[in-house]
Design brief:
2 domains; Aldehyde Dehydrogenase, Chain A, domain 1; globular; homodimer; alpha/beta; four-stranded parallel sheet; 43% helix; seven-stranded parallel sheet; 15 helices
């Protein structure tokens, strides 16, 4: 359908979704070799077209500067030659990943001779709504192609020129190896209306993955009739049990809070067993303080460690994503688990303990995508888990939970081979 | 919270959901032994309380007769001593099934020494909205308990007295082995309002499974903010390829259409390759006709087999669930796949062929929960697949696709065990 002036935005967008779905057919059965050739073409094209990409990016950057975009966000937005090279390398890493499509998960022969196989197939058409960094455009498109899925992209408005150029580069690159470019679509030219239609494209888009802050994710969850995978919110706790080693506790806390404070697997609240509070808090909070962490603590903690600002109910609910931490004392493992159950976003929760019974209880009873004993919460990550790539970290229970790699972008299909069997 | 007159239906229902969630904690970590003891108590109680159950059922049956419930539906509704015995046997079958909870799906040691395990955990609280047969109440509650999930039930209004008694029997039975009866909740006493609040209980109910007709399922999909698993719609096709064996085709068609016409895996549309239409149609349609099947066919089919009613566009879309079948001729495998892609509900699709290339193309290119070669579509069934029990047949792509057994009622959790590891 030609995109003429007489068509409504709705018509144009739905036509794009239909083209994505139509084109996803051939991609869903493309060989690994062909999909890897498309990825290689993308990696090459990114470098070859880097001048055009940088120039589009400069337009976004100067618009951002005019609109008062913070220096930190301008830095996240910036693409230069070296960052484009890194993007191309990331695409080549996806080439090296095993292709999940066609993998046999279960199978066997039924008593009547029917041969049964459950195999991985693509989901169909992915919808991804994301903010800020334009490298997500390339990352997600690469993972979609490798997993045999078409993708509809809605990027942040601050990166609109960059993303438009990137999508053009990606589409031309895959067309050059005869993969239908319609498997990559963007709705950025329709602003909010694009996101709105994606959320209502049930039957055309198979799953929506919002990547961004709390507001974005909650909007998509509330509004979408397309199934959503919630990602990335992390109100993460570490509980120091009575038997915790002070030095291990300090090292893990410093790592989990300060190694990269702005990410979802950084710790936000510290819980300490009352019987160990006087032993552990001065050491642990002293070390955090040295790293510039602001401690938000209740009165009982401040009686032990005075260099803290008073905590309110709001602190237990807050994902700071900054050099801040909330601290309180609990009477028991049960109270720690109850606090976590009340405030956790069910991303990552950890206990530091030397007590095997308490370690196992914490692992069994805490309900989260990842539950850890004596390790930094920063390890909840597709790269660290050995997935080679990460689409996001699911904090919901259906379909995928925790870091999502290529297999999490697939569905399954039962293949049944017979020679005339009928049911008795 | 006491359920007094001053509470709104909303308050009462949300309080029930909260109690289910609270009680699901202990059930989620209950041992297999304890869960099986609860199931054994249920099986015993059903038989011991059969008089009360039958008497409640008789009230539903006489109300049904007054309200003009069809004889077929009255039969589906009826529970007598022998059917209650069969229900108790079905519960004991669930005892025999392996417990999915705690099963390790993936795992290993990371380079830094962290030990990683992905284990199955319960989803939490299931919501099930169903129609007609009261045995679903017992089946679903048993499968929920075995998989460590609490369950909120909304049964058909025609079975309200039976279901109320069954829920009471179930709750007393599990309480007798010290499992909190709050893990089983019903909202039947609130009519439509109960179903409405279930669909909006995001955060309290983890997944909604509608079991019933098209209208019920589409209402739940459109209205629910709780994630939904769509089940059971089956606009099922069988394609007779050019090389199909006529006798095999006739036997499979008769089985797929007439063995149990009212179920979702029964065939609804027959597609025949043009080059084989004159050879196959008289045999196959003749055999269907002998079994009382009404053939709805387009003109080209009626030119070959005249004993048919004219088909309209609506026939290709219809899941008859009766002794009716739509028949048309296609020019090629591609055209068969395109017809299926357009009209299929993506439940089960089959090809009858002797051509290995076409068989493999059909398996690869048709998008459905189950795709079959030379077998009756009636085999798409948890029992036939060897799952031992079936919650429903998912026709969606996220989380579960095809027959759902106990593992499909679970989520996963990553357990990470370290000895002080921090991220570099």
């Amino acid at each position: 359908m030609p995109e003429t002036q007489t068509l409504s935005p709705y018509d144009v967008l739905v036509a794009r979704f239909r083209r994505a779905r139509q084109a996803s057919r051939a991609l869903s059965i493309a060989t690994t070799k062909r999909k890897n050739a498309a990825l290689e073409a993308i990696a090459l094209a990114l470098v070859q077209q880097s001048e055009a990409i940088v120039s589009a990016n400069e337009r976004d950057l100067s618009l951002g500067a005019e609109n008062g975009l913070s220096m930190a966000l301008q830095d996240r937005l910036r693409l230069d030659g070296s960052r484009i090279g890194a993007l191309a390398d990331a695409v080549r890493n996806v080439i090296a990943l095993p292709d999940p499509i066609g993998q046999v998960i279960r199978g066997g022969r039924l008593p009547n001779g029917l041969r049964l196989e459950q195999v991985r197939v693509p989901l169909g058409v992915l919808g991804v709504i994301y903010e800020a960094r334009p490298n997500v455009t390339v990352d997600i498109a690469s993972l979609a192609i490798k997993s045999g899925n078409a993708v509809v992209l809605r990027g942040g408005s601050a990166a609109q020129n960059t993303n438009a150029t990137l999508v053009e580069v990606l589409r031309e690159a895959i067309a050059s190896v005869e993969i239908d470019p319609e498997v990559i679509q963007t709705v950025d030219d329709f602003g909010r209306e694009g996101a709105h239609e994606m959320m209502h494209a049930r039957g055309l888009i198979d799953v929506l993955i919002p990547r961004g802050g709390h507001g974005l994710i909650q909007t998509v969850v509330a509004e979408s009739t397309v199934p959503v995978i919630e990602t990335g919110e992390g109100n993460v706790h570490i509980f120091l049990d009575e038997s915790a080693d002070a030095e291990m506790a300090a090292e893990i806390l410093v790592n989990a809070k300060t190694q990269r404070p702005s990410v979802c697997n950084a710790v936000e609240t510290l819980l300490v067993h009352r019987a160990a509070a006087e032993r552990l808090l001065p050491v642990v909070l002293g070390r955090l303080r040295e790293k510039g962490v602001v401690v938000h603590a209740d009165e009982q903690v401040r009686a032990i460690f005075s260099d803290a600002v008073p905590a309110t109910e709001r602190d237990w609910e807050t994902e700071y994503m900054s050099l801040d931490i909330a601290v309180t004392i609990v009477d028991s493992l049960d109270e720690a688990i109850a606090h976590i159950d009340r405030y956790s976003s069910r991303h990552t929760e950890a206990i530091i303990t030397n007590d095997v019974h308490n370690a196992e209880r914490f692992l069994a009873e805490v309900d989260a995508a990842a539950v850890m004993v004596n390790a930094s919460t920063r390890f909840t990550d597709g790269g660290e888990f050995g997935f080679g790539a990460e689409v996001g970290i699911s904090t919901q229970k259906l379909h995928a939970r925790g870091p999502m790699g290529l297999p999490e972008l697939t569905s399954t299909k039962w293949l049944v081979r017979g020679d005339g069997q009928v049911r008795a």
